[in-house]
Specification:
With 94 residues, the chain is an alpha+beta fold. The chain has two helices and five strands. The chain has one domain: RelE-like (YaeB-like fold, 2-Layer Sandwich), CATH 3.30.2310.20. The mean pLDDT is 93.
Length: 94
């Protein structure tokens, strides 16, 4: 059974904030970055363990993939891939 992708409200707010920040300098690049977030997420449907385990937690179900300098953090559940946050790669979570 294929997994479904779910975006948490927090992850969508993160994407909106990132887009607004980038848009100040380049609306075209902002749109490109946001599109890439969603494209990369779709890759996980076929290979949900494509991302690495989030190093701050070392929990197998909490993983991340990178898009440019951003971390798309997701949780693997029974039938879903839940995106919980999108943060800059230099930022640690904890």
């Amino acid at each position: 059974m294929a997994l479904s992708i779910v975006w948490s409200e927090e992850a969508l707010e993160d994407i909106e904030s990132i887009a607004s920040y980038i848009e100040k300098d380049s609306p075209v690049y902002a749109s490109s970055v946001v599109s890439k977030f969603f494209e990369k997420a779709e890759l996980l449907i076929e290979n949900p363990k494509l991302g690495r385990v989030v190093p701050e937690f070392s929990e197998e179900s909490l993983r991340e993939i990178f898009v440019y300098s951003y971390r798309l953090i997701y949780e693997l559940k029974e039938s879903e891939i839940v995106f919980v946050a999108v943060i800059h790669g230099k930022r640690l979570i904890g």
